[in-house]
## 1
Amino acid sequence: MAKYLLLKHYRGAPAAVNDVPMDQWSQDEITAHVKYMGDFADRLRESGEFVDERALAPEGTWVRYDGEGRPPVTDGPFAETKDLIAGWMIIDVDSYERALELAAELSAAPGKDGKPIHEWLELRPFYGHPPTITE
Amino acid sequence: MIDATLLRSLTPGVIGVLVRRGADFAAAEDAVQDALVEAVRVWQRDPPRDPKGWLVTAAWRKFLDATRADTARRRREDAVDAEPEPGQARDTDDTLQLYFLCAHPSLTPSSAVALTLRAVGGLTTRQIAQAYLVPEATMAQRISRAKKTVSTVRFDQPGDVATVLRVLYLVFNEGYSGDVDLAAEAIRLTRQLVAVIDHPEVAGLLALMLLHHARRASRTTGDGKLVPLAEQDRAKWDTAMIAEGVEVLQAALARDRLGEFQAQAAIAALHADAPTAEETDWVQIVEWYDELLAVTDSPVVRLNRAVAVGEADGPRAGLKALAELDETLPRYSAVAAYLHERDGDRRTAARLYAEAAKKASNLAEREYLTRQAARLNN
């Protein structure tokens, strides 16, 4: 019983095996990809392991505090930002092995020529609650 | 005001009656859940004289409503007439069978936990979902799949009490205290189990839970900071609960069938027994760790034993015991940091505390370990 974040990147992940950008796929290939993602989420709902999924717009704004009484400073987007998150899925599973298995399944989503993208996903454990019995 | 705990304590018995009348477990469980919801609504203005009888009637009606096929209904109604009213002994057996079924080895730990909380504990799917911070639909699915998994298991099949204890331990130890107090619920379910099965390890687990639960108020500060055992305000410990835990444990130990939960409870009892941290009987605690290792040898037990050795025989002895263990064990760095500080090596301790903070599995522990590193660095 542990929660994991499966993180997808627009940019910053190591190159995928089938690394052709989506704007160069056929309509059918895009449809097949979207369907795969939807089916994957449905399977997780069905297995009782789904927590959440979200997608993020690629363009964001950098914001910081600029001192008492002053408006926040904004900047960006920066083209040089290495890590650009595209979205995530949160799962609640029995083991780390199961989390790996699901991440691999998600990474197998079809891309160009209907072949798996082999996209690199980042798997991050959530902090849990401190256990009661420790000694 | 309805006593929700009393209401929920009737759940297993009512499911048992329905199953014996011919309902399959999954349908019986659903019907009893529906009846519980109705009870909360109706009892407020019209409390029944016989709560269990009321629930059986309501649940059976719900079950029949859910069963559409007329022929099947007629057959089941005949079965009702043929069935004598349940006696106390049957009720006890049913409750125990439900524990076995909900902790069946074919279930994953999270499914067994969810099913136990619903079918034995009488919690709603929403309450269980909130307690484990997952969407209600996800928890509903988990429970329904779990029911499907055990659908072919015969209700009267003997089960393994060890699997039940593991599930209850999980509920207690990994429970998040939100709307539903899972630690208290685990204690209630273990108490109920003690009442229906005579087994020293069941008593051992109950004692272990009580002895740890008794320290709950002192374990964290108001703002959620962890307080280690040695620094806890022992005046905040629940002495009545400790006394009960010790009594339960002594009765179990007298049976001379030691198991891991009794040994763990014995260690907790020795901590609870010390008026101050300095007066802790570490020599006896090390002996109990040796007993624990004899019944269940695990790296985590060896790690905790190294801490106890460090207290009993000095930090060097503790470090020596630690050196025999795998450095990748969870909390290894934290233990090493503690022993090195006790040994006077503040620099190594600070480095190890910082390392341990990075490997912590929860935020409270990470913050605690980071503070230890910061304390030694400044």
## 2
Amino acid sequence: MLEDDLTVTTRDQDGVAIIDLVGDVTTFAEDKINNAYREVTNTGARFVLLNFRQNDYINSAGIAILIGIVTEVNRNNQKLAVSGLSQHFQKIFRMVGLAQYADIYQTEEEALSGFDRFRG
Amino acid sequence: MSMELTLPNQLGYELIARDTIAAFARRLGMPMDRIDDMKTALCEACINAMEHGNLLNPNLRVQILCHVDDDRFVIEVYDQGLRPFVPPPTPLSIVDKLTGMGSLRGMGLLLISQLSDESGFVPRDEAGNCFRFTFQRSGAAHVCR
Amino acid sequence: MAISDDPAQEPLDKVIELRLPSKLGYERVAMDTASSLARRMGFHPDRIESLKTALSEAVTNAIEHGNQHDEAMKVVVLLTARDDGLVISVADQGQKILPQEHTTPSPQIADVLERSDKGGWGIWLIRELMDEVEFTTAPSGGNQVRMVIHLEP
């Protein structure tokens, strides 16, 4: 019971595929996150935003899932950004090196305008 | 599913236990209002164990056991029983207490009995008191308590 | 400052002992307990977040590796509030012993991206986030990690 502490939904905003992650990102998140990524990729998304909310628990298993997404994003020539992380998890993402592969923004709005420099 | 927590016999540590039990109950999908009941009841039970069972001796311990099955969430609080619990000949109601009969101590037990579905001391062979209180896991039937 | 190797030698009157089922998700109980204690000890919220992350990694390691997801096996977490910090030890029942060479990993994301297994960050994170970290064998024979987070004056 309650292994399901994460809600994942997808939406499109100005040509950016936003994957909203509300809740915990741990080993139980794997299928949900991978399915959401596959779904937006199958519809041709070039820009992908992982938008975190109320994520007071992300662990190393969750980080491994996100690194898996980075691998796919690189393979599919997409651009990846991350928003909504708490200060603590922004720090963890930088420590791990995820910031080299995904721009980290405070808010969704900042992330959306951040993608503009890739449009041409 | 079970969990065990042992605390120093010092007032204040019951607040840590309260957060432990709440996290455990959330994992098990207990409704929020029942978790609030559980937190208050646990604090009262710990304070009783520290003050009355262990007589505030800082070298003693308070142990909390939680067993959970499909139907019930059971919490047991053990002290090392410097003083065994002696039940009053007739339990006093809140009205009795407010009119000055008996001491206001023991309010904790009254509160726990109101908040939980079942509560009481469990007879033991060894020294020390065991106070057990339980919550049904089908929370819907108890929302009006 | 002399620090004992054995957390059991911490003065008992200050130790909180938590025994959890070996089921993923229940590390949250340890995290909330430690966070509650650390908050009352006066740790800064950032440090409490670091502590929660490190502890979650230690407990999930114990559940997944040391106790092989056997729910009946317990993960034992000892928390000791000291004047100068919080000492936490996490022990499992040692169904699988952690080799010493696995206790000092230094994963690089560029390498990890090339591997099929993207994991291996847990112990590295613990070492990055805590002030003192030591891997030993528990009195029960299982794996034990002892972590200290200092309380800055």
